[in-house]
Amino acid sequence: MKNNIPEVSLLKFIKHSLEILKNPLPFHNRNFEERGDVFKLNVGFNSKIYFSRDAGLAQYVLQKNQRNYVKSKIQTVDLVKYVGEGLLTSEGDKWKKQRKMMQPAFHKKQLQNLLTGMQDTIISEFSKVETNKTIDLFPLLNDLAFQTVVKSLFTQAANSKDMERLQYITEANQRMLVKELRQPYLGWWFKIGGALKKHLKLSEEARTILKGIVAERKASGHRFDDLLDMLLETKYDDGKGMSETQLIDEILIIFTAGHETTSNALTFTFQLLAKHPEWQDKIYDEWSELGGDDTDLMTRVSTSKICQQVLEESMRLYPPAYFIDRVNVEADRFNDMVFEPGCNLLFSVYEIHRHPKLWTNPESFFPERFADGGRQFSAQYFPFGAGPRKCIGNNFAMFEMIIAVTELVKNYKIQPKFDEIDITPLITLKPKNAFLRLEKRN
What we know:
Blueprint: E1 7-8, H1 10-15, H2 17-22, H3 25-35, E2 38-44, E3 47-52, H4 55-64, E4 69-70, H5 73-78, H6 80-83, H7 92-102, H8 108-111, H9 115-126, E5 134-136, H10 137-154, H11 160-182, H12 187-192, H13 195-220, H14 227-233, H15 244-275, H16 277-289, H17 297-303, H18 305-317, E6 323-328, E7 332-334, E8 337-339, E9 344-348, H19 349-352, H20 394-411, E10 412-416, E11 423-425, E12 429-431, E13 435-440
Parallel strand pairs: 1-2, 3-9
Antiparallel strand pairs: 2-3, 4-6, 5-13, 6-9, 7-8, 10-13, 11-12
Helix pairs in contact: 9-10, 9-20, 10-15, 11-13, 13-15, 15-18, 15-20, 16-18
């Protein structure tokens, strides 16, 4: 890149390394404020990352010239060793082939088959809520999102012991990956000390569990019209289905990407609703006006506009996937910036969603801004990514979250038992202090 791109020295990176390990966002924010919307961070003697909150550059890289950009080593190598080479982590022709094959399974018409099961799971998880006392809502919502993915994938085929183990493995491996990414200088120790080996062994255990479930489904001859059936029945252009290895990769990625982001988004949403009780009333009134529980579920999730506005605004302030990474294959140019081949670009979705030049009152919770939907902000709003690699499960996630928010708000009033919303940025943006009090609605 041109030398006039502001640079942050390796010395400064090392000086702030403990702060970055805990939460890198304030460090990046200071650099953006001091140096502008794109800066270069030296993270090693020959290693640098270009950080950007330039929405125009993000749109150019993710959509307009996406053919020249691939995902970085974080996803195509580091994450692959834990979850395999599925839709999230593959590139090139393999990705195109998988995306084309799997897209129909996530179409709104197909998802309609999953809605009742989704609602039943959510109601079951919310029945565990303790009222009239301070609770941390995140563990409950984490279980809820995981169980929703499990039931949508497997219906009744999976036993609770296996699912608890899969949930533990998914979360343990994510914590390990965060350590690897934030402390690259300890890579040698993770290998010699046995931590890496231990976590790779956990991944193999997860694969064994999933292979057993798939084998049981194939042997049963029963159809459940769940995601597993859809994945087993999808075919490539040559008429062949997925190999067992590929199927397990895709299921592992659905677990990893499908429950974590949703539980985070729901937790932040309920924290925001606790701070803004008038929006709880608006969601409750909308549910009543739409006919309450007598309304067809697909109709309800498609027409709950106020609930959707609240979720959109929540994901603007607290995007679960809070950064997007890309590497350019060939030299490229955007405005006055020249990219040499192989530049590591990291787009801060968190910063883009709060950029004062892009949003009115960016730090405020203002769901009305999404009254006409999110499309008007498509050039600066990326809760599910953008371009051809936009999250395939975005409709699944929105349906699940609309049902979950409606189910909680129609039954309970939410009160905050925290001062400020706090965050823990890991692979996804996680909540830290979701202490709430729920009271039964009269």
